[in-house]
Each structure stands twice: as structure tokens, then as C-alpha cells.
Design goal:
CATH architecture: 3-Layer(aba) Sandwich
Largest sheet: 5 strands, parallel
Number of helices: 7
Order of helices and strands: HEHHEHEEEHHEEEEH
Helix content: 25-40%
Shape: globular
Strand order of the largest sheet: 2-1-3-6-9
Distance between the termini: 35 Å
Radius of gyration: 18 Å
CATH class: Alpha Beta
CATH superfamily: SGNH hydrolase
CATH topology: Rossmann fold
């Protein structure tokens, strides 16, 4: 049986197939009271396919891994607040006519993706291609010893001195992720695509790193990570519109991001075929 780490989301009070993670029934009912009458999510259904380990895909033992593209990431990949059909994994799968496995887990960090990659490799998984949307190192996974983790981030790191130090320590941001990227590239013998969702182009032709803990911005030369591409902006909101105005990417954003993935995927796979 294929086993991966479990995010703390899997232990929260969730009600699939209609709600999951940050997209709770209570939040939806609250939004129905305060949002305008034409709120797009008021009568729009959202369905979650959640396997026994809390991942938004079918049971791991039923997956044809060697013919599949694996997509690692946090909630941007999991896609709370949108229907199964609106996730990037689902949309990309239709475009390339190949299974794309949604391995996104909410609130997780880069280390979580790295560990899951090693777990899959150790269990004999050799995929067709791999995509990483690195969540960023302003988060930290605390391993619980039973295959589950606690997720530390801007939402709770003040309760842990270690987590607070890690998450607010800007100087280690680029180097840590660079080593994680190098490690997975040494691991997989297949096409690999890497992105960092918290990077955006600035007028100064630099890359902007937003510290989710205190809102500060650090400018990093865009050549720092030759294998990791910058990512786009969030253009619309998913159903989980939070009390503080926070939300996850909606269908329009995920469609635009998938188009970028599809373009890069074609270039990468075609270049590998020629080689």
C-alpha cells in the first residue's frame, strides 16, 4: 500500500464531498449572509474527491503511476473552494490526455513535498513527469512520528519559537529551496517542472519574495533559481472567502495557470523526446 505524509488538514473537521479544508460549511453559510445576491458561489456546487489519506485524487493503489504526471504543492494545488474539475491537475490532465495526480496538501511546506517525493521513490514509483509548485520556506513541517505532520505558518508560528525563527528568517529562503530543488532533480529520472507561487516580476526586473508572517518584501535577483520559474497573480476567489478577506485561487486563475503549465509541459516533454 502506497503511503504518504498526512497534512493537519486531514485531521480537521471536514465534510467531503461538499466541503473540505478551509472551505467549511460554516464559512459558506456565513458568506451567503454577507455576500451580494449575485455572489458567484451562492448556487454553484463544489465536489471534493478525497482518498483515505486526505489527498484530492483516487486511492493511491488504483493509480497508474508510471503513466502519470505528479503535481506536488500546497493548497494552490489542492485547490480548496473549487470543484474537482477546476483544479489544475484535472484541467491539465484533459489537455495532455494523461493522468495528473493531485498531491497538493493545504498549509504544507517545501520539506513536505520533498519527503513525499522520497516516500514515493522508495516505494518504487517512477512517474512520467513531475511538477512542483513549491509552497515556500516561510512554513515548517513538524513530524509527529505517525506519518502525520503539524503545519506551522504565518497563522500560528508565534506559538513556537523554532517555527517563528524559521519562518521569519529571510536569509535562508533561497538557499534552502535551491538545495531541495537540486535533491528532487537528482531523485527523478523524468521531466521536472518547478515553480514558486510567491514570486512575481517587478518593474526593477527582480523577483519579489513576500514574507507571509510580517508582510515585508525581499527582492531577489531573478537568476537565483535557474530551474524554478516565477508564478502568476491570483485573479479571482474560490468559495472559501475568509473572514479577513483571505481566499484561495478561483477557477479563472487556475485555468490561466494551467495554460502556462501546458505550454511549459509541451516544451519540456518535446525536448526530452528529441534528446
Amino acid at each position: 500500500m502506497i503511503e504518504l505524509l498526512k497534512s493537519h488538514w486531514h485531521g480537521l473537521k471536514c465534510e467531503p464531498p461538499n466541503f473540505y479544508g478551509t472551505d467549511t460549511k460554516e464559512l459558506f453559510e456565513h458568506n451567503c449572509k454577507i455576500q451580494s445576491a449575485d455572489w458567484v458561489w451562492r448556487n454553484k456546487k463544489v465536489h471534493y474527491t478525497i482518498n483515505s489519506q486526505g489527498y484530492r485524487c483516487e486511492e493511491f493503489d488504483n493509480i497508474d503511476w508510471s503513466n502519470s504526471v505528479l503535481m506536488f504543492g500546497c493548497s494552490y494545488v489542492f485547490a480548496p473552494g473549487v470543484d474537482d474539475s477546476d483544479t489544475m491537475a484535472s484541467k491539465l490532465s484533459k489537455l495532455i490526455n494523461r493522468p495528473v495526480i493531485n498531491l497538493g496538501q493545504g498549509a504544507t511546506d517545501d520539506l513536505f513535498q520533498f519527503c513525499n517525493s522520497n516516500l514515493l521513490y522508495a516505494q518504487g514509483i517512477r512517474p512520467y513527469a513531475v511538477i512542483y509548485l513549491w509552497p515556500g520556506v516561510h512554513r515548517l513541517s513538524e513530524f509527529k512520528g505517525d506519518g502525520s505532520v503539524s503545519n506551522w505558518g504565518s497563522w500560528n508560528c508565534q506559538h513556537s519559537e523554532m517555527a517563528k525563527y524559521w519562518i521569519t528568517n529571510e536569509t535562508q529562503v533561497t538557499e534552502f529551496l535551491e538545495f531541495i530543488s537540486l535533491s528532487v532533480r537528482n531523485l527523478w529520472d523524468c521531466p521536472i517542472m518547478e515553480y514558486y507561487p510567491y514570486l512575481h516580476w517587478c518593474e526593477e526586473k527582480q523577483t519579489r519574495q513576500l514574507n507571509q508572517f510580517n508582510g515585508s518584501v525581499t527582492y531577489i535577483p531573478h537568476t537565483t533559481w535557474p530551474n524554478i520559474k516565477h508564478w502568476g497573480h491570483v485573479m479571482d476567489a474560490a468559495r472559501d472567502y475568509g473572514l479577513r478577506g483571505n481566499y484561495h485561487p478561483g477557477p479563472e486563475t487556475l485555468t490561466t495557470w494551467t495554460e502556462k503549465l501546458f505550454f511549459d509541459y509541451q516544451l519540456l516533454v518535446n525536448s526530452k523526446s528529441v534528446a
